[in-house]
Amino acid sequence: MSCPYKSGYVTLLIAVFYCDISLFTAQTDYAPYFYDNGPNSNNGNMALLNLSEDTPKGTQIYVLNGTDPEGQPVKYGMTFEPGSKEYFHVHPKSGTVTLIEELNREVNFKIFIRISVCETLDYEKSRTHFITVVAKDGGGIYKGKQQVMSSSATLTINVIDTQDTPPVFVGTPYFGYVYEVSSPGSEIFTVFAKDGDMDNPNPIIHSIESGADGVFAINKTSGCITLKVYPAELRREIFNIKVKASEVSPEGKLLDFAVTTVTIRVVDLNNHPPTFFGENGPQNVFELTMYEHPPEGEFLRGLKITVNDSDQGSNAKFHLRLVGPGHMLRVVPQTVLNEAQVTILVEDSAAMDFEKSQFLTFKLLAVEIDTPERFSATADIIIHLLDTNDNAPKFSSDFYIARIPENSPGGSSVVSVTASDPDSGLWGVVKYSIYGSGADLFLIQPDSGIICTQPWASLDTEVKSKYNFYVKAEDTEGKYSLAEVFVTIMDLNDHSPAFNENSLEKTMVIGAPVKIEAIDEDAEEPNNVIEYSIMKSDPDDIFNIDADTGEIKLKPYIKSMDIIQNISSNKDCTWSVVVQAKDRGSPSFSTTKVVKIDITETQLKGPLTSFLLKSRENPMQFLGLVSGVIIIMVFVTVFISTVIYVRNVKSNKILPSRRIIRRKRKPWRQDDFHQPFREECCGVKFRNEDLEIPTADNINCNNNVKGCFHRTPPSPPDAPVMPPPLPSHFRHGDREWTVPTVSASVASKTKKRSDRCKDNPVNTALVSELKLRLEQKNMANRY
């Protein structure tokens, strides 16, 4: 089957020139480009040009046409291969190409080339074909030989495009940017589309299909997209605009088209710092009046602060920080994006004290986070504090110590107390009062705090020398504090020494002193310290007195009654001595008394005698000695009894334990005991508990007893008493006791023994029991 024949044509270039055409612009982000208007156009990119060899020199053969996407001016240029002749010249601004050398092309032969059957030319697949053509002549004699001459040439066949391909966008994908400084009419981006049929292209027109939101426009011829509004009016950060490129036929009809996406991003410039706003606009000072000590966690209601950064994205992100005294307040939020309402919370209520500071100043800072500029803003926050009654009055001291002389008249000033309340106004007014068990004799002036004695008060150190009570300072709302007042009544020397009347008659033994005593009822030293002195005696030089103790002694040289009788004619040995007792107060008081002293001489000597003589003057000393001796004797008795008791308890614990076999009680026989509990010939009575004999395999039983037995009488009779004392003829050395082993018996060796008690069974049992107990005691001592 044969394909239909399709006619075509081939252009044979008479001359082919190779050169580089250049397009230059100033420094930009995007390169300029030529318009491709096809081979039949006389302007464009001069990609394919046919010239006749007889074209006159100086002819303008073409106009180069190009543009810059950013609208910058362009310049044109043309370069040739090194060593080749330059036939053309281009004007750098207009792009006009002029022929500057004559063309010459010699033509030998015509050739007709046809397209093979069932083949078609496709411009989009192959724009150029190369064919080698061989030409032969009819032959002839050359140099004596028959020769056929031939020649070959390579033909270049350029395929001319037809309208069968839609437009194509060049340089996709497309991205454009809107900057904050842009204005309406600013060029954002230019798309470039060309007809797919490049050799014979149709004009292209551009339009926006969607995504522009009415804020972008496009030039239908150049494809330049422009901004229609200010960037601040853009409501999105990214726009995806659909752009359509359509071919237009010579008749003006729309033909094939292509659609592409242009992504336009709104780029923010960090040119706005954070700004604080009040109710009426931008503001950098905020003032507030509030009461001191607001509740912790409460926000300051009187402050209405807004902070804003007009930039976008990370350029509008910033920190908030509050700088001021202590940690009283805290700001929230601490991180802001674009805009936020500022809230300030109370953190330390106690620190917001009117008494410490009546106004507080803080700095509110807003500092950008992720920008190199780190723009910031500050605002002053001034808080005026109002006072509340938050303080109780406080005394200048926790206690006050005062001294006032006794016998001071009523209404005398004692001490002044002071309390202060830092609160203002009526809250700072303090009233004083006193109370307590010791406050009866005192009163306080409620306004001044001066403490005085009651008008009727009588202060006497000897009655009571110390008082203490509490003073109260209270404000108008009942808040108060306390302090303690200690008042000491100072002693005055208002009492004279008084002698003890019982000590005014004394009996003095030679060699021993006598003592007189006087008492001063003043409460403190030196008012109650007494000095004794002898004012007069007859004869004068016989007695000495101790000024501190009041002891009166004979002179050292008087050692017997004979000496006294030689000194004085007074034969009854009784002397009257005038003694003075004087205190050390200021002024000093004294008392004088006559002391009668009877001098005697005792025959007893030794320390005991001296003590007894002294005790005559002080009977309590003798009674104390007797009491001490009795106490010592009682203590010794208790100690000995305790030691004996402990040893007895110890002996009972140390004895080896044995299993006790209780045997059936045997009836008593008449021949064993005859009336065992009546008084025997020896006059000895025994008690039941002393005759209790243990039964334990005869280990510790009396060896003189035939068998051990255990008596449990239903009701024990009265026990006999202990044995009588030894006869008068008994001598201490006549009886000796031996200490046998455990199993042995304790036997007493008696030289003479009463025949009356020899064969009595009761006595025999008693002796055996005593021997057993002595043996147990000795064993305990040994262990």
TrEMBL record:
Compartments reported by the entry: Membrane
GO BP annotation list: anatomical structure morphogenesis; homophilic cell adhesion via plasma membrane adhesion molecules
Superkingdom, taxonomy of origin: Eukaryota
SMART domains in the record: CA (SM00112)
GO cellular component, one term: plasma membrane
Chain segments annotated as transmembrane: 622-646
Major localization class: membrane
Record-linked InterPro entries: Cadherin-like_dom, Cadherin-like_sf, Cadherin_CS
Residues annotated as domain Cadherin: 51-169, 170-276, 282-395, 396-499, 501-609
GO molecular function annotations of the record: calcium ion binding
Keyword annotations: Calcium, Membrane, Receptor, Repeat, Transmembrane, Transmembrane helix
Name of protein: Photoreceptor cadherin
Organism, scientific name: Cyprinus carpio (Common carp)
